Amino acid sequence: MNITAQTLTEMERRYRANLINSIGGFKSLVLVGTKSLEGRENLALFSSLFHLGADPALCGIIIRPQEIVENTRGNILNTKVYTINHVHPGIYQQAHQCSAKYAAGVSEFEATGLTPIFKEGIEAPFVAESKISFACKMVEEIPIKHNRTTLVIGQIFWMEIPDACLKEDGFIDIEQAGSITCSGLDSYHTTHRINRLPYAKVKKEGL
Amino acid sequence: MNITAQTLTEMERRYRANLINSIGGFKSLVLVGTKSLEGRENLALFSSLFHLGADPALCGIIIRPQEIVENTRGNILNTKVYTINHVHPGIYQQAHQCSAKYAAGVSEFEATGLTPIFKEGIEAPFVAESKISFACKMVEEIPIKHNRTTLVIGQIFWMEIPDACLKEDGFIDIEQAGSITCSGLDSYHTTHRINRLPYAKVKKEGL
User: Fold this and answer.
1) Is the ipTM of this complex over 0.90?
2) pTM beyond 0.90
């Protein structure tokens, strides 16, 4: 099937949303935990997390202009701190449910049954059920002109990883920890490692 | 294992690279094809692609300041067009090899044995072996101050998807197409669908 710019423009809105959300490949699937200045907890599902750099340790998330994630954006702007929590098969349905449009006063933790926990010195809630979690301090907010989304850049300052999943060379075996991936707007997937490959070097005869 | 900001700072460089590249979860794995103004083809492996919006259809990639991907950046800035090609188990070793630091004049297609093909009216090479490919026009380039990377935003204007993988609602079954995901700097994974979930709605009793 071949799809052109003209077809894209004329497409039904929901069909296009499914299509364009699928075409980019598998995505990181994480729950972002925040707290308002008034102390209200918020939890939102994100699939736009990407690696920005290792030194300093930076990652980015894209926040859409809709109200549902505006809570996350507002809390991050106000408190500068947020947690990122991996999703595993035991909590993927609750994670998905965090995308429902709850009223501003409702905590997604309470609504979905996920458990907030706090770590010393970190003012945002973690998800107790997650196996891998980390905390970020917002260092930059960049508005994306083309569609009113916002890129939030965070510096990682705290991590929790199961001992057995942290390998000798610093690689985290997130598959062993049960972390899952997603595609499109609603499809959840476990993974199966093919291989880890050695650092790629130029060889005289190509491969 | 608990890792703090202090530990992160003192970590050996390669160890930290593995760690921070793993912590963000599974990633999109794609080959980005470009052509220089002089007609030289370039192919680079990216794991930073993220969805930005469906209308207009936008995605972002992060380009690091190193020379190896500078070719991609230069070509995109000069020609404004690039292709994005999914990776499957049959080509993941060749895809990985595209990360080797080939000299500026060397085409990664030639070096790895992947096959460039062109589509009418699109001035960048596609990967013939990929099952899912799409083409983008660069619409914005945003420098990230914190680490000299660049966010390149592209508008999707062309797609090719196997008929059997495009579902009635616009969802692309990228797992069925054999698309794989990656974690860390060097780990490749196939996927297994758990489920597609219905659109999340607020319920009276939470879940």
Assistant:
1) yes
2) yes
